[in-house]
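A quick aside before the break. I want you to see a complete sequence-to-structure record at least once, exactly as it would be stored in a machine-readable document. Don't worry about memorizing anything.
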Amino acid sequence: MADLRTKLGPLTLKNPFIVGGGPPAGTVEHIKKCVDSGLGAIVTKTASTVWYLQRYPRPLYKLIDYKKDPKHPFDTPKDYFWMHREHNSCYEPIPFAEIIRQSSGYCKEHDCKLIGSFSCKTMEEWKNIAQLYVDAGVDALELNFCCPFPPTGLSKSEEDNHVGIYYTMHPEAAYEVLSELKKIIRVPMFVKMNPDGANFVTVAKNLEKAGAAGVTMFANNKTMRVDIKTGKPYIYGPGPGTGTGMKPISMRWVCEVADACDFAVMAGRGAVTWDDAVEFIMSGADAVQYCSPIMIRGLPYVKEMIRDLNNFMDEMGYESIEAIKDMARKQCYSNQQLVDLVKPLYAEVDPEKCIGCRRCERSCWYDAISFNDRKALIIKNHCAGCSLCSQLCPQDAITMHERKSDKEHFQAMASAHPDLAPKGFFD
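That is the input. The structure line, written in tokens, reads:
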């Protein structure tokens, strides 16, 4: 059986699965149940010092594009969209520290790291609560610079809006908070960034300089979906949302930040199944947070993910998480490598497999496919080598081959209007 332990900055987790800050880790009993599920780490439900966010918005969830199977009630589709209205903990950070205190011993007994998540407004609050959480027994802190969204329009003061996403949007304020906390806090501090922010590589570099042990990327975007039968927006308008379609965007930033910084990266938004964790780890993540997938499937799903990850590792011959870490990130090509190493292609049809469905013809935008005796034929000097036809062919009758020269490729690309090609294009 493979060794699933992973390094998360200075912490060692028994596996890379983490429950992200939310309802699964909002009470002592829930935290203990998360521990029993086998998770490598737990991020507690975010507690904030903003009066409004302890009461509103009221919890409201909406699953969109979620296909249910009455015969298999526990089967869950992978492709769905999740929107929510969710408050922070109804408990202020100071009383929430008691929840941490009552849970931390159980976490340590079962080798499950406890990461305390909170969000504040003033420097004094950040310092006091960080120390309080450390004294209560957390292994690390997650400074929530992502959510909550400020209660704009309901604020009692402008200061109430200096919370959550404010710090991603104002990197200088984030740097100041982290720098000051670093002077007094001795446990690792991770920063949860908001996906609606700016250039995350630049922000992450500044956070690393300020002393962060790593970053979490990300929680939910502010999104919007519409019920076309009523014309009404789901959950009353734009709100936090996530789904598998967001995974590629999260993964891009995980890869770029891991490439630019020498600290830990926790992936999150878009991860639904165990194999998403593999993709994220191969792209540069050290561990992966799951929240809505666990809320939907229940905590028994964690053991399933651990089992399936173990099976995959054994089948592929990987002995440890370290063996797959950064595998994809290290194989990402630079622009120069794309020019030097990626060879031009052309398509070829196997007439024995072709059934003449014309699927390829409809999707060829280089006019490189004709038909003869109801069989597809590739016009080689028109084929740009994009490979779309080979992926769409229902019979796998089309294969791709390398061209002999770039000149052939350039001639094919400009075959519709060779007279309009730039000077020297075919050289």
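Two observations worth writing down. The longest strand covers residues 113-119. The chain has two domains: 6-331, 338-420. We'll return to this after the break.
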